[in-house]
Amino acid sequence: MVRVPTYIPSVDKILGGGVPIGSTILLLAEPGAGGRAFLFTSLVNYCREIKGDLPATSGATRPDMIYYITPKTSRTQFVEMMKQQFSFLNTIDFEGEILDKSVIHMDVGDVYFARTIVPLSWYSTKTIPEHLMDLPPYDDYGGLAYLTGMVETTKENSVVFVDSLTPYLPYFNDYEKWQNLVFLMYGLSRAAKKRKITFVILLTSDILPESREISLGNAFDAIIHLVWQKSRESMSRQRQMYIEKFIGVLPLLSSRDIATYNVSISPETGFEISNLRRVA
């Protein structure tokens, strides 16, 4: 089994070195429970390995490219946000040596907002005439079909982060469109394996009715939950992670690794799970 690392050492350890190449992974996260930190930590540690500041992950193959797709942040905002959270990026020429060569930031705001009431100046540097002359491709789903179409052009042996699926959900309110979203995710899972592209897609948990969350999750190879656990002894809260399913991986894990893990997030190491386990 060819694996690619998540670049979160404690997670890769329990997964046997990483995730099967071509997996589609749904990162189902409660607000603030560490969804974006998971993606950022993976991306930054990938940069560290490229620079030689981290050893190669044993038993896994380094992706040739990481794509970070978002309608939320421009390239400049993305770089600033990453540097604020990870001091490592301030010690290297991130934009000159890494960005656009090994890490591709894709701002799909032009597609997502193109036919909404959002003012052009909020998401684009184009003038109105430039925008009208070069309208981006669009579909009835906020550009999501256009976004997933990139699977045909993405370099093989790549990892694609989608941050996140949540902004697209208003486009799938009625039953027919909802079915199209589910079909699209099943198709993406099939195409990802054919092209050897691994997808990690973030989704806010509990934003969908339970039945829809289940039907959507069935289209993915893996579901990883990030949740807040309130302590019974105090009013403090603890971030936690557990794997609901992972085709081809979960059956191979030892019983002690099928558990709920405490999560810590720090400026130095980013997202990590602790060795303290509470059996799920």
Describe it:
- The protein has 280 residues and is α/β, with parallel strands linked by helices.
- The protein has a single domain, classed as P-loop containing nucleotide triphosphate hydrolases (Rossmann fold, 3-Layer(aba) Sandwich), CATH 3.40.50.
- The strands form 2 sheets. A 9-stranded mixed β-sheet has the order 5-4-6-7-3-8-9-10-11, with helices on both faces. A two-stranded antiparallel sheet has the order 1-2.
- The longest helix has 21 residues.
Unreliable spans are: none
Radius of gyration: 19 Å
Strand order of the largest sheet: 5-4-6-7-3-8-9-10-11
CATH superfamily: P-loop containing nucleotide triphosphate hydrolases
The geometry reads as: globular
**CA-to-CA gap between the ends?**
27 Å
Q: CATH fold name, please? A: Rossmann fold
> Element order, helices and strands?
EHEEHEHHEHHHHEHEHEEEE
Helix content: 25-40%
Q: How many separate helices?
A: 10
Strand content: 25-35%
- Which architecture name does CATH use? 3-Layer(aba) Sandwich
What structural class do helix, strand and pairing data support? Answer: alpha/beta
The strand count comes to 11
Structural descriptors:
280 residues; Rossmann fold; 11 strands
